[in-house]
Design a protein that fits this description.
Blueprint (H helix, E strand, L loop, with lengths): L3 E8 L8 H20 L6 H14 L4 H10 L4 H8 L11 E5 L5 E8 L7 E5 L6 E6 L3 E7 L4 E6 L11 H11 L3 H10 L6 E6 L5 E7 L2 E6 L3 E2 L9 H7 L1 H12 L6 H8 L7 E2 L4 E10 L4 E5 L6 E4 L6 E5 L35 H11 L7 H15 L6 H11 L1
Parallel strand pairs: 1-4
Antiparallel strand pairs: 1-16, 2-3, 2-11, 3-13, 4-5, 5-6, 6-7, 7-8, 8-9, 9-10, 12-13, 13-14, 14-15
Helix pairs in contact: 2-4, 5-6, 10-11, 11-12
Length: 412
């Protein structure tokens, strides 16, 4: 894998000078255009463009000045106009893990899991409307995660469903939340109102220490929870193959363990995110950890972290445009499971979580059973394997993740 360059840049649509956001558009648009056209051959259809623009005006009207600025850069290209609304994009997903640590200074931390070749790898500082925003850029003017100058931070993970419905792409919804909201309560109201075209989990944290995780999905009412951590499923697993591939249940349980101990602090939580099972090295299958981001609303700062590297740190008070070259392949990839959060803790003892031997908790077994209902029974062998796997999960005996994984492999 070639070294990956991460950049911190300022966007400014109000300046008459040639802004970096114009340069970024010309850099990234050719690849976005090729992808968008391959998935939506009729993307330039004037009726579809008109519908997308009308939906943006109807649902997120505050974003129109930003949309028009980027559309102007594209010379009113109809394909770009369609893409830039964020309405009804092709299906896309990322994996990711994220958590809120309620400490003296609360933080929102997340791993972004994809392929560095598919990521813009860019932190932007923008003041498009009324407040400044620092975040990880996506889809030219959307966000994967970010924080505004009011102290509201937000981050997303994929919600674990293949269903695609009517709505907006999540990076544009994230931009809208951070442009128009100052608190978690305000953000929740937006996420309940704005339709998402796929399932995602958005974790929110504000300057006052309030937090929430909101689960959104197409044609479904948003679910507001007090989950302090989330991975790539919602209330239950609905896509067993993806859940097994991404180890979403294992990562969620590991995070739950980390957050229940008083010894878990900012430093050792970051270190835990930089090691397996939270950190992934599966870049070939677009499931490698590209960066670990940490947002501190009280400080107005955020940082990108990687193993054995100095972090890239920026803030509203001191945002320096900079480049950082990182060799992801060479940095502790596939390292040992971190147990640092459990060290020197009388409650935890010498606890070390081994997912090959660990038994699956009953509540998670119930979710797995529900997920098995979605596996197609298209042959007698598969039907028999699914039946055996269900019996195993329903039994009184302990079931390890290895046993479950072997049974699932036979079923699919």
């Amino acid at each position: 894998m070639n070294p990956t360059t991460f950049r911190a840049r300022k966007f400014d649509i109000k300046s008459k000078a040639k802004s970096f956001h114009e340069k970024a558009f010309h850099e990234f648009w050719p690849e976005y255009k090729a992808w968008y056209q391959s998935k939506k051959p009729d993307a330039s259809n004037s009726a579809l463009v008109k519908e997308a623009e009308s939906q943006l005006i109807k649902v997120m009207p505050e974003l129109i000045p930003i949309y028009e600025s980027f559309r102007e850069i594209s010379n009113d290209c109809p394909i770009a106009s369609n893409f830039l609304t964020g309405y009804q994009p092709p299906a896309y997903l990322v994996n990711c893990s994220q958590a809120v640590l309620i400490d003296k200074r609360p933080i929102l931390i997340r791993n972004y899991d994809l392929s560095p070749a598919l990521s813009e790898n860019m932190i932007t500082h923008s003041t498009f409307l009324d407040q400044a925003i620092i975040g990880t850029n996506e889809c030219l003017w959307g966000f994967d995660d970010g924080m505004n100058s009011s102290g509201l931070a937000a981050s997303l993970t994929f919600g674990g469903s293949k269903k695609v419905g009517k709505g907006f792409g999540i990076p544009f919804i994230m931009r809208y939340v951070l442009e128009t909201c100052e608190t978690v309560d305000q953000a929740i109201k937006v996420l309940k109102r704005v339709p998402s075209h796929m399932a995602y989990n958005i974790t929110l944290l504000d300057k006052q220490g309030d937090f929430a995780t909101v689960m959104v999905a197409p044609e479904q009412q948003a679910i507001v929870t007090k989950e302090r951590c989330i991975t790539n499923h919602q209330k239950q697993v609905t896509w067993p193959e993806q859940a097994s591939f991404s180890k979403t249940l294992e990562r969620k349980e590991y995070l739950d363990h980390l957050l229940q101990y008083k010894s878990t602090n900012k430093s050792n939580l970051i270190e835990s995110f930089l090691k397996s099972p939270l950190r992934s090295s599966n870049y070939d299958q677009q499931f490698g950890t590209v960066f670990t981001a940490v947002y501190e609303p009280e400080q107005g700062s955020m940082a990108y972290h990687w193993p054995d590297e100095e972090p890239l740190i920026v803030s509203f008070d001191d945002f320096v445009e900079q480049d950082k070259v990182v060799n992801l392949e060479a940095q502790g990839v596939g390292g040992e499971t971190s147990a640092i959060a459990f060290q020197n803790n009388s409650q935890a003892g010498d606890y070390r979580y081994d997912y090959d031997l660990a038994s699956i908790p009953l509540e998670i077994r119930e979710s797995l059973l529900l997920g098995l209902e979605y596996l197609p029974n298209d042959s007698s062998n598969k039907e028999s394997s699914i039946s055996k796997l269900k019996q195993l999960l329903k039994s009184d005996k302990k079931v390890s993740w290895v046993e479950y994984g072997n049974g699932l492999a036979a079923s699919i």
